[in-house]
Every structure is written in C-alpha cells, then in structure tokens.
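tokens incoming
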C-alpha cells in the first residue's frame, strides 16, 4: 500500500510480501492452540520431502505459522470458491489498510484525491466527493493519493489542509493509520473467531501420527497405513508429541538406509477395535545415502474448540491469541534478517498468498480467521520497517524533519529516496508474481 502525493514521490505503505504462515516442525512452541493451515502433503518444514521422500507436517499443531513458500506446493489454486475466498481476504486487508490512511486524513480535513487498490493501469474507477476510487491491474497493495504537488489541482499550494502543510503529528497520524487499522482489524478477526467458533486448544498424546503413506514406498511395502500412530522406534518409546519426538523418528530413518527399523504401531485410534503391534520397515536409500520410507509425520494431537463463558473471558482469549500470533510474526521477521540468505527465497507475492489461503479455505474454513489475522499483523509489522516504499520509510523522513527542527529534506532528495523504493518494490512484486505463478502445478505440467 502506498500513500501518494500527486506529481511527487509516494509516501508508501506496501502490502507485505513476506508471508509468515507455516508449519515449521523445528519452531513448535507452546502446545496450546493450533490450527490446520496446510494439508500434510504441502508442509516442507524439515525440507525432507524433496530430498528424502518423506516429511514432517505439523499443520494445525504448529504454533509458528511461517510459510516456507519456496518449497510450497502451489497447486492450491484448484477450486474457484476457495480462491475467491482467499483473494477476498487479501483484498479486504488491503482495503482496511488504505481506509486507515484515508480516514485519518479525511477526519482531520486533509485533502485526498485518490484511493486505489492495486498498482498500474486502472481496471475500474468512479469519482465521489472529489476523490477518485480505482481498482488497478497489479494486486501488490494500494495507495491513497494527496493533491499536494498536483499542477492540475485548483487547491492553493499554501492551503493548510494539504498534507504537506500539516503539523508533524498530523502527518504521522495519517501515515501510521494504515498499520493501526490492520492491528485493530486483526484483533477483531480473532475476537469474532473466538466468540463464533471457539479457541482451538490442542491436547497431546504419545507417539507420532502418520497422516499419509506414499504408494509403492518402503512404508507402504512393509505395511504402514495412513492413520497409524508410531509409539516406539527400535524399542524406545516416544514421549508426548513435540518437535523433538518427530525429529527423533526422522533421524532414525535417515540413518538407517537398507537396515530395518522396528516401529511400534497403534492402529484404529481410540476405538475399542484398536490394536498395538510391531512392524519392521526397511528404509530405501536416497541419492545422498540417507534413508527414506515415503511417509508424512505429524504430532499425535487432538483439537477441541473452547468458547468463552463471558465477554471478559472472550477479550482475555483474544488478547492472548493476538499476542501469540504477533510474537510469531516478529520472531519470523527476526529470523529472516538473521538468516537472510536462507530465508530470502521464502518471500512471497500475492499469488502464493492466495494459494495458501485457498488451501486453508479448502482444508479448514475456520483457518481463514487466523489466515486473515496473521496477514493483517504481518502487513502491519512489515510496513513499520524504516525502508523506502513502506510506511516506516515515510515515518523515518518525518522524524528526520522533526529532528532538524521542522526543516524538511530537499524535495528532490525525498523524491529520489521514495521513487527508488517504489521502483524496487514494483520490480520485486512482478518478479514474485511470475515466480509464484510458474510454481503452480498446472504451469509446471505445461512446462
């Protein structure tokens, strides 16, 4: 999202391109609330699917929602309804962000000339109260435009209601209002989820669940079935579920190519007909010499929905969940900067975000609540970064002005800083759209 001053460099706030929804097995924390965001086949948590023909999937059990979209199966655009739902969520979040900027200006009497969703060529538009509302071609965010330096505007350049002529505090309020709107919207979404659906609470059980078994794999050949629970490995019992439990099974399999592994199995769930027995599975040898058996693994948990007893408890649940999601977003951003070379490929554009959202909508409609909440929080955090083309970059320029005693930087300098940032973001956005589109299954099949 971007705030623009007509015929001058934009004061930006861009739609965050770093998605933060994933099921990363190594980042499981408090085993309190979990949602099923990704189907098992799509989790690349330990990056084992590609190399070892099996992976671990935490899906709804993972408390961290960092989405490793570089390895993500973007075949998730099947089914128009789920795609429309995901696109609707992303569009609503963009509109909320821009509405924050717009309302902060409008309520202060500041002149506004444009309100746009998307960038580039105009697809549709209408005018009302001297404001042009438009839908544009590239869904990379949006912008609110101000006529501050518009040569075609009839407003005098010294008009006190032009944004550039307002006091520093007024401008800070306008620029930061988009972030504030997203934070408030995220809190409302979580509150509605808790009141209407309930708070998902996880109960952990011993062992590791096998959600899926690949046909013709070592696991299938030796008798392992989807739904089985691995209770022990080579005689060692597994504790209650957790990242270490899944990793223990993974490590044993990887270090045992062509050597049988004795798995203690429970089959049949909690029903009376359930049975415990042992299976000898002989992992195949992968190209890198490690073992693989062709299964997906996840913690053995059950999820129940807890509804609040009263409005006070509802706000209490909402506050805890909101802070938990915010902490995960901040942690993911921190890890991105600390390990940029490994995490840069996880930056994703609107196509990948919609693919994830569509998968969420198909697998668990309740998950759309947290999908929307996390997108809002992600957008708010990303836009606060003091970088050109982000709200934080504009705030940084205003704070520099304040530090200089109200003396602004030369207009040419501001234009150069912001224009370069916007250009970089647009190029990045187009690149991500092309890359993520080519990662869709039907494009892969065509290629």
């Amino acid at each position: 999202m971007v705030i623009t001053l007509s015929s001058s460099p934009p004061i930006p706030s861009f739609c965050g391109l770093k998605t933060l929804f994933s099921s990363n097995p190594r980042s499981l924390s408090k085993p309190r609330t979990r949602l099923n965001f990704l189907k098992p086949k799509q989790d690349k948590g330990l990056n084992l699917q590609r190399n070892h023909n099996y992976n671990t999937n935490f899906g709804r059990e993972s408390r961290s929602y960092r989405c490793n979209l570089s390895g993500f199966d973007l075949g998730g655009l099947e089914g128009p309804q789920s795609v429309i739902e995901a696109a609707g969520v992303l569009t609503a979040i963009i509109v909320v962000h821009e509405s924050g900027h717009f309302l902060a200006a409008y309520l202060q009497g500041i002149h506004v000339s444009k309100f746009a969703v998307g960038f580039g060529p105009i697809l549709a538009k209408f005018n009302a109260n001297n404001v042009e509302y438009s839908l544009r071609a590239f869904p990379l965010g949006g912008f609110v435009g101000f006529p501050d330096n518009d040569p075609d505007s009839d407003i005098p350049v010294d008009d006190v209601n032009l944004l550039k002529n307002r006091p520093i505090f007024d401008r800070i309020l306008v620029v930061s209002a988009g972030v504030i709107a997203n934070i408030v919207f995220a809190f409302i979404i979580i509150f509605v989820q808790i009141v209407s659906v309930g708070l998902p609470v996880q109960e952990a059980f011993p062992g590791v669940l096998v959600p899926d078994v690949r046909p013709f794999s070592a696991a299938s050949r030796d008798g392992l079935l989807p739904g089985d629970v691995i209770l022990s490995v080579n005689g060692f019992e597994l504790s209650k579920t957790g990242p270490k439990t899944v990793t223990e099974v993974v490590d044993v399999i990887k270090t045992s190519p062509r050597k049988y592994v004795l798995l203690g199995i429970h089959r049949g769930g909690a029903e009376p007909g359930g049975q415990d027995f042992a299976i000898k599975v002989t992992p195949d040898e992968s190209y890198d010499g490690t073992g693989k058996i062709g299964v997906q693994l996840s913690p053995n948990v059950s999820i129940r929905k807890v509804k609040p007893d009263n409005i006070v408890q509802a706000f209490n649940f909402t506050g805890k969940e909101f802070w938990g999601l915010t902490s995960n977003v901040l942690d993911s951003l921190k890890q991105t900067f600390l390990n940029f070379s490994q995490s840069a490929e996880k930056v994703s554009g609107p196509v990948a975000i919609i693919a994830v959202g569509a998968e969420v909508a198909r697998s668990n409609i309740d998950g759309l609540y947290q999908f929307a909440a996390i997108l809002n929080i992600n957008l708010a955090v990303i836009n606060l970064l003091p970088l050109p083309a982000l709200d934080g970059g504009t705030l940084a320029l205003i704070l520099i002005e304040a530090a200089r005693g109200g003396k602004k930087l030369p207009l040419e300098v501001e234009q150069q800083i912001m224009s370069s940032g916007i250009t970089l973001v647009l190029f990045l956005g187009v690149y991500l759209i092309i890359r993520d589109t080519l990662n869709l299954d039907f494009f892969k099949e065509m290629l």
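note: The two ends are 33 Å apart (CA to CA).
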